[in-house]
Design a protein that fits this description.
Elements (H helix, E strand, L loop, with lengths): L10 H30 L3 H39 L2 H28 L1 H8 L7 H14 L2 H17 L4 H21 L8 H16 L2 H6 L13 H31 L6 H37 L2 H38 L6 H32 L5 H25 L2 H21 L9 H23 L11 H26 L3 H12 L1
Helix pairs in contact: 1-7, 1-11, 1-12, 2-3, 2-5, 2-6, 2-10, 2-11, 3-6, 4-5, 5-8, 6-8, 7-8, 10-14, 11-12, 11-13, 12-13, 12-16, 12-17, 13-15, 14-15, 16-17
Length: 521
């Protein structure tokens, strides 16, 4: 049955499914980071692993879950709506075949050229031969993950286009589970225990792909190797890919430059930034990515049908809901960063100094969270119009801002300056996207939008500031775990309640609209 004949869920309903599945995956992701921190701390070995994993992981972000997915969905979805499933599946066959050939070659080249890659992106390791050699070996092991995640990403986008969001959103949980089980169960069997993390990445990559295959078969897809790179639809995808790759590469170049600069800073700098980035990425992954994931296929359908008013309303609601959740999340990271890091990571090999440095980096990532999350929601509105050039310009602007801020920020804040520069670059990226969005015919209502942002920001700040002052303590010094939970959870609950009260007092539109609909029902 064609997807346009099926009953559609609302964006909010579908986003709830994605968010709940993603939340579970992100919780496992935090457990994965806890396991890594417990066994390896913020050490030479973890710096080597983070650097080695960054290369295939950034290629994944840029292409698999970035450019390729965003270019593939509009063409695939449009064919389902205005053509047939058979035509859509043929496009998928061509894309899968191209991936196996091209990405397979990239993986092979990555394995061969691993020493060159580490020399380029972590030159500070050259003076420590053991660290350099370990990073090269870990890179070679994990390059294979790239092919697994490319295939998994396209399967995910196919299922999303058919309204299947739950299992694809849950699939990263298998990736995290693969790493957790491998490290806990087998780290002692490796001559260098950190190798268990790299092997876990491969096992998790296989699980992430395999869990989606039954649903893919259920929608009727059967892969048939097809080499037809002159196909018009495939050519449309490749035309969209160019600017997308440049745009996404620009933001990922920032991360690689961060790694390069951090490799010259104090031992553990790369690990501090990685642990804090993962914490920042939790609300980003659960809420913003969920909304962005659901928005693209839905918005693409609205564009294909010419539903302009519905498009404006969708932007207002998705962007508003995103800010309603993400701004207080950013305040939570800023006000409670030390308590978060202590509860999650400060066990085993993770020291008090590691806590202090990781929470400092988290503070400077926190204000960037708002921009990173908003970009995830805004970009699909450009891609749905088959416009990848404006997001490219926005990303290039972010690179320029990031590079310009490196020297002064690192001078002032050392490794945390890298997080601060990244956050300001994210804000610049968002500003450019919002400036150009009305040119796509979308009524943003900037006055109303900024007033809502101001109200939410003030409500969030007041809520967490007041909650942090709470002197109440139930447990004594002999119950360390309970104390750590209490000093984080009690202020958090207080802040959530205060936030809801303040946004109601300030008449924030998203809450008022929700209460009005609830009252009608």
């Amino acid at each position: 049955m064609s997807i346009n004949k099926e009953k559609k869920n609302s964006i909010l309903g579908s986003a709830s499914v994605v968010a709940s599945s993603t939340a579970f995956s992100r919780v496992l992701g935090l457990v994965r980071e806890q396991v890594m921190a417990y066994y390896f701390g913020a050490s030479m070995a973890t710096d080597a692993f983070v650097t080695a994993f960054r290369i295939p992981n950034l290629l994944r972000d840029m292409f698999a879950e970035g450019a390729l997915s965003q270019a593939f969905i509009p063409i695939f979805k449009e064919k389902i709506i205005n053509g047939s499933n058979k035509e859509a599946f043929r496009i998928a066959d061509i894309v899968f075949t191209a991936l196996l050939l091209v990405v397979g070659l990239i993986v092979l080249l990555g394995i061969i050229a691993a020493p060159v890659l580490i020399f380029m992106f972590a030159n500070g390791f050259v003076d420590t031969p053991d660290k350099f050699d370990l990073t090269v070996e870990l890179t070679r092991i994990m390059m294979v993950y790239l092919l697994l995640v490319y295939l998994s990403a396209i399967v995910m986008e196919m299922l999303n286009s058919f309204g299947k969001f739950g299992i694809p959103a849950l699939s990263p949980a298998l990736f995290n589970l693969g790493i957790i089980v491998t490290v806990i169960g087998f780290h002692s069997y490796f001559p260098q225990p950190i190798y268990s993390l790299a092997v876990g990445v491969l096992i998790g990559g296989v699980g992430q792909l395999v869990i989606q295959l039954p649903v893919l078969l259920k929608i009727g897809y059967r892969f048939k190797p097809t080499i037809d790179f002159l196909d018009e639809n495939f050519k449309k995808i490749t035309r969209l890919l160019g600017p997308m790759i440049i745009g996404l590469s620009a933001s990922r170049i920032n991360i690689l430059i961060n790694t390069l600069v951090a490799s010259f800073l104090i031992e553990g700098s790369i690990s501090f930034l990685s642990y804090s980035y993962r914490l920042m990425h939790f609300p980003l992954g659960v809420f913003a990515v969920a909304l962005g994931t659901v928005a693209l296929p839905n918005v693409t359908e609205m564009v294909a049908k010419g539903e302009k008013e519905k498009l404006d309303t969708t932007f207002e609601k998705t962007f508003g809901l995103n800010l309603f959740i993400v701004i207080p999340s950013a305040m939570f990271l800023a006000f409670m960063g030390k308590e978060i890091v202590e509860l999650i990571f400060a066990w085993g090999a993770f020291t008090a100094t590691d806590v202090q440095n990781t929470s400092l980096a988290l503070l400077h990532y926190s204000y960037g969270l708002v921009a990173f999350a908003a970009v995830r929601v805004v970009v699909p509105f450009f891609y749905a119009h088959s416009d990848s050039k404006i997001p490219m310009r926005a990303s290039l602007t972010a690179v320029v801002v990031n590079i310009a801020l490196y020297y002064p920020f690192v001078k002032m804040l050392n490794f945390a300056g890298l997080a601060a520069a990244t956050s300001f670059a994210g804000l610049a990226n968002l500003a450019v996207l919002l400036y150009y969005l009305p040119k796509k015919g979308i009524n943003c209502g900037f006055g109303k939008l900024f007033l809502s942002v101001f109200r939410i920001t003030i409500a969030s700040f007041l809520a967490f500031y007041i909650a942090k002052l709470n002197p109440f303590r139930l447990y004594d010094g002999s119950q360390e775990l309970l104390i750590r939970i209490e000093v984080l959870v009690v202020p958090l609950i207080s802040a959530i309640l205060l936030y809801l009260i303040f946004v109601f007092i300030f008449r924030v539109p998203i809450l008022i609209d929700f209460l009005a609909r609830f009252k009608r029902k």
